[in-house]
Amino acid sequence: MLFNYTYITHDIEKLQGYLDFLFTDVWLFAEGDFHASKLDKNKELYDIYLELDKVDFDPENAKKNEKGKSAYFFNSSIEKIYKAFADVNDDAFKLELIDYYSNNNNIEQICRDPKLPVLTYDDLKSKEANLHKELKAFYGNLYGSESPFNLSDFGSLKTKLLPTHYKEFFSSNKKGKCPFCGIRDLKGIHHTKKEAYDHYIPKGNYPFNSINFKNLAPMCNDCNSSYKGTKSIIGTTTNRNKAFYPYSNSHPAITDFKITIDLNSNDIINLKPKDLDLKIESFGFDEEIEAWQRVFAIDERYKALLCNESEGITWFTSIIDGYNTAKALGSTLTKEQYLESQIIDAKHIPLSSYGFIKSVFLEKCELMGLFR
Question: What is the DSSP letter of 4?
Fold first, then answer.
């Protein structure tokens, strides 16, 4: 990614707090049958559980009672997972789960350290099949249209918490571009619609972090749906790699990326992706860049941008047209000076009008003598 986001604190984080409590204070110590008093150390969650327990639910008429369905799902999941933990006879594995829970929620360290021990659903299934089934059913439905957190008892995730988080997020993150590609604009505080939040570490592969907002980042639709999808930025479970962390404080600045473009054709007007060789480097971040390019198809997308008649090709022709217009208006600049001024402008605000790659492309065209 070209730049990092600034993480914000928000009431939405309380949802992960409920799950932290359930795991560390309730499920790990499961013995015998579950009863509501197991939750009394967290009064908020205890009160919510009791309120949800009062909601009537008829499984045969679930569509007519969405609140009942969500209430039943949340409370029954707590109870089923409690029982699944109580049935685990391997105390050593329970101790391992403490570290796994912490590691799976340490998204930054997962991105930095491919050797950090993390738990996958496949790992869990091979050890404790029933626990795997109950945890995946629960965590797999905590984010989205059917999440029990959408209930007003939890603060209404979809209709209140997410919209206010989004507004505050983009009040702090004002660049307006998707950091994962640098190409697409992001809908911000002046839009009525919003971008989707992506689960950076796939929630379908790794338990415990599906509502952790350090694992959720707004992403343009092209990056999220067209390219990333369910791909894992950290590689496979058996061959992990380093990856950029969206909220890192040590992410390279956009000016620290060295983009190299080689042109294998002088015919810019009819430029094709096969005529281009593109390389991106930043000292000390080779592995992260490789993962970024692999998941978001950066090479393909940047080449397509350069071959676009309205972008890369226009950048080239506008230098000639712009210089001729400037001369007609009395400019005393030479063609070289005019070109240099355009390159300086592109570099000055690298995220505006694709300046970060436009400047490199124009410099390469000049080096090859294509403006003469």
Answer: P
